[in-house]
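Design a sequence for this backbone.
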């Protein structure tokens, strides 16, 4: 009886999910570290520089456009140190608001339909034969009979030049 079960287990497809998720606690920590650094650094004294959450977005304010960009650089370095890819950060251009300049940034969670289609096309065109992918909301499920083929797909996507940060989860 066990031999029959083993055969069924081996016949089942292996799969993994491709997701793009941001660890919001780490993003919060990065923002708090950036805020502390901006408050303490001499070159930011009396420049009105600040960084804070504004709903789901991160709002950066400063007296000049250069200062606003410098605050963004500090925030980006803190994100990198916390293991968050800059592909997950969508920052706008500095814009004047009254006497200050602002930059609004958002953290991208999930894979857009457009990017999901691109990833699916890469898997179809360049991946091993017999690997199937399907879009499930804001993530993709990739299936194959061969675990080696799945490893090949992961390597292929890690090497691809995509504008989205990918994680590979639920590998079974």
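Sequence:
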């Amino acid at each position: 009886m066990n031999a029959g079960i083993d055969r069924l287990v081996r016949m089942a497809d292996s799969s993994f999910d491709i997701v793009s998720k941001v660890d919001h606690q780490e993003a919060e920590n990065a923002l708090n570290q950036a805020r502390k650094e901006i408050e303490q650094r001499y070159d930011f004294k009396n420049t009105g520089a600040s960084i804070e959450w504004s709903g789901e977005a991160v709002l950066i304010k400063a007296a000049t456009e250069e200062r606003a960009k410098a605050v963004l650089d500090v925030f980006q370095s803190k994100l990198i140190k916390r293991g968050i890819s800059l592909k997950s950060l969508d920052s706008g251009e500095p814009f004047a608001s009254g006497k200050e300049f602002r930059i609004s940034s958002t953290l991208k969670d999930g894979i857009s339909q457009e990017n999901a289609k691109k990833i699916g096309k890469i898997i179809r065109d360049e991946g091993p034969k017999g690997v199937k992918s399907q879009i499930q909301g804001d993530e993709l499920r990739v299936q194959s009979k061969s675990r080696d083929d799945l490893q090949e797909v992961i390597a292929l996507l890690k090497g691809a030049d995509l504008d989205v940060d990918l994680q590979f989860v639920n590998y079974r």
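DSSP finds five helices and nine strands in the chain.
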